[in-house]
Every structure is written in structure tokens, then in C-alpha cells.
């Protein structure tokens, strides 16, 4: 499981600046597609040696505030507060940011009191030390009794390497499961917002198939892996809905945790994302799907509760999907009823093929030929009188398939041209259901 680091601090201390710094990948690998809004609350840190999930609790709170930006306790909705509490509960480490320029204040002390109650490693970080005498300015934060404050200027990256080193030293080792104990077969995560029908779907899938170790002695009660077989092939469901812990489907046991959902996405080979068709695509759906895209997971979208919709409603949902989910165009959409079972078999039948697409091996001659073909059909623009030139391409990885394209001045390639290349390659390679990543290497 990805370890979790929660970012806390009063408004304006630089949490989102640090969040952006840590989650921005060193080279922009993932194209920004229309309709995709980057999540500013949850992100995977990619700067250091160890990947971890970073949660900006300030971002969660702000999102829930009204337009006037009031951050009163009443203004913060309950769901957001619950996610903040869960973030603290599920965090392996808390980064507590304070403002070295403004100095210690009452809000910092209130936050510190709350943090002292939870038994978690805490790193106190004094931000905005650029251009000031850091040791003088940060001395007073010792009063928080949380140890020596680390010095940071998030806006400039100063102190970030040291901070990353401290974070990594405190994070639990993410050991790969030992051979033989690892969950079998294709790992499938069924994810989506609360009440969209995840546990109904999981139960339906398991109910119809032979469950191998559902209640085997020795498996921990809170294990989230459910191995099963279908047509003599092993699969493992990653359970985010707490199906295992419920005795009946309608029993609401599990708190909906975005962190658990993101960890499941990270562990999965294939994500089945459920949308409640009677509600349509919500903002949270779009942002969770953005996370699936960022993680590079193969994806199938299930439009659930299709049974209860009129023809008009169905038309509306389809149109809304086309508009709002353009950034995950590669994903197949299936209209299903987890409750009645319709469409579930067909959806499941697609898992193998979509997994295979994500793991395809693509030969260097083929990729080079296609990239040159794309370039011929549509030349990259001139940059300061010189034409950007793509020369050859090879595969850099699978799951998701990653193509490395060599050329010159590729760093100047416009976003629109990268998108064109992605679409061109996807079509020619018939890559269904998986994102495709491009990386560029420039010789000049
Ligand atoms: P948040 O409310 O805690 O998320 O804070 P923001 O990240 O939005 O930052 C608040 C303000 O502080 C912004 O104007 C930032 O540009 C500024 N800021 C953030 N980090 C630094 C820093 O390292 N040095 C300086 N001088 N300003 C910073
Ligand atoms: P979860 O929170 O995502 O695990 O959602 P549940 O599986 O607990 O389902 C939430 C509610 O939606 C329950 O009352 C289900 O009976 C209902 N539900 C689930 N799937 C369907 C469906 O395909 N059609 C209809 N009409 N209701 C469904």
C-alpha cells in the first residue's frame, strides 16, 4: 500500500505550494486533456525515491467552503471534515506547516494541541524562510514542543530535498508481497463514490463465481484482497466497499475513504469505475477518474442503476458523459444493473482484454514507423525558425504502455501536438481501455 502523508496547517502558510511542488512530476509525462481538472487535494508525490500519497487537508476544507471563502466551522461541510479526520487517521506521517514570516500564532497552537493527541510521527516545517534569518525566525516554534522545525521555502524548492529525506526516513517500508503470497491473477479494483453500487457489484461477481479463499482461516479480517476464480482463471478483487466486513449488502459499515480508494487504484491492474447513472457524472467522479488516469490504470466505466432510468434520462447521461469524461475517452463504458445483473457479465468479459492492452509489448520498428507516419501526416510546428523533429521511438514500460520518443527540441512540442500523437498511436495500435503515456528525449 502507498504510504500516506497528510499536510496540515492554517490557511496561507504554503500548503498548496508544497503540495504542487511535491506532486508535480519532474518531466511532464501525462498530457493534460480537456475536461481533466487536476486534484489539488490528493496526489502522488513523485519527487523523491519513495512514492507516497500526499493529502492537503487544507484543500479538502477549502473545497467545501462557500463562494465567499468563509472558513467557519459551519461553512465546512460534514463530508469534508470526515475526510480530514480520515486523512489524519490513515496517515503514516503528518507534515505540520507553519509560516516563518508571520511567526507563531494561536491557530498554530490549536493545531499542535490536536496533533499531539494523535500518536503519529509529525514533522514540523517552517515555510517561507527565503530572504529572512531562518534560525532567528523559527526559534519561537520550539514552543510547540514538536521538535526542531525544518526549514523550507516551498515556493523555491529550498530545503525540499532535506524534507523529502526526513519524510522517507519516517515512512514505513513498502515491501512487495513475497512471491507465492501475492494475490493471484489480475487485480481488479471496483471503485466509485458512496452508494453507487460497489458492494452490490462485488457480491454479484463473487456470488456467481467460485470464491476460493473468501473465509479461509488465517486471512485477516480486514484484508481487502478477495481472490476468486472465473472460467478457471484466478482474479483478485480489491475491496474498497468493505464487502467482507458486512453481513448484508445494505449494512453500511465502511466509511467512504478517498485515501483507501486511491490506494486500491494504485494496487490494481484494472479499475472498474462505477457511476450512479441516476445521478450522472459528479465533480467527485471526474476528480477520482483523473486520479485513475494519473496512476495510468486500465479502466472500464460501469454506468450502474441503468435499470431505473427512462429513455430520456439515458440520453441525458450519455451526453453528459461525452462532455465531462472526454479525458478518459479510452475507457469503455458499460450500462449495467448490479442489482439485476444485466450487463455485468459483458463488463467482466472485457477485463482480460483491457489488462492485456495495458501490458502489450510494442516493438521499436513498429513504434518508430508509426511516429514517423504521424509526423509526415502532420508536421510539428517551427520553433524559432527550426522544425521540431521526431526521429525514433521505443517502449519505455507497460501498465500503462509508455512510449519514449527521441528527437530534437521535443521540449518545445505543444500540448496539442502531444495529444495528436497519443490519439494517432492509440488508434493505430488499437489500444483499448488503457491510458498511453508519452515521454520525450531531446538530443538538442
Ligand atoms: P495554503 O493556504 O497553506 O495552501 O498556502 P498557499 O500555498 O496558497 O500559499 C499562500 C501564500 O504564500 C501564496 O501567496 C504563496 O505564493 C506564498 N508562499 C508559499 N510558499 C512560499 C515561500 O516559500 N516563500 C514565500 N516568500 N512565499 C511563499
Ligand atoms: P456502495 O456504497 O457503492 O457499496 O453501494 P451499495 O452496493 O451498498 O448500493 C447502494 C444502494 O444502491 C443499495 O440500496 C443498492 O441496492 C442500490 N443499487 C445498487 N446497484 C443497483 C442497481 O443496479 N440498480 C438499482 N436500482 N439500485 C442499485
From TrEMBL:
Q: What SMART domains does UniProt report for this protein, alphabetically?
A: AAA
Write out the entry's keywords from A to Z: GTP-binding, Nucleotide-binding, Repeat, Ribosome biogenesis
UniProt-listed GO biological process terms: ribosome biogenesis
Record-listed GTP 2 binding positions: 192-199, 239-243, 304-307
Would you say which domain of life the source belongs to? Bacteria
InterPro entries this protein is in? AAA+_ATPase (IPR003593), G_ENGA (IPR031166), GTP-bd (IPR006073), GTPase_Der (IPR016484), KH_dom-like (IPR032859), KH_dom-like_a/b (IPR015946), P-loop_NTPase (IPR027417), Small_GTP-bd (IPR005225)
- A Pfam family in this protein? MMR_HSR1
Which residues are noted in the entry as GTP 1-binding? 9-16, 56-60, 127-130
Give the GO molecular function terms: GTP binding; ribosome binding
Residues annotated as domain EngA-type G? 3-175, 186-359
Q: What does the sequence similarity comment in the record state about its family?
A: Belongs to the TRAFAC class TrmE-Era-EngA-EngB-Septin-like GTPase superfamily. EngA (Der) GTPase family.
Q: How does it assemble?
A: Associates with the 50S ribosomal subunit.
Q: What does this protein do?
A: GTPase that plays an essential role in the late steps of ribosome biogenesis.
- NCBIfam families, sorted: GTPase_EngA, small_GTP
Alphabetical list of PANTHER family matching this protein = GTPASE DER
Protein name, per record:
GTPase Der
What's the source species for this entry?
Answer: Methylogaea oryzae
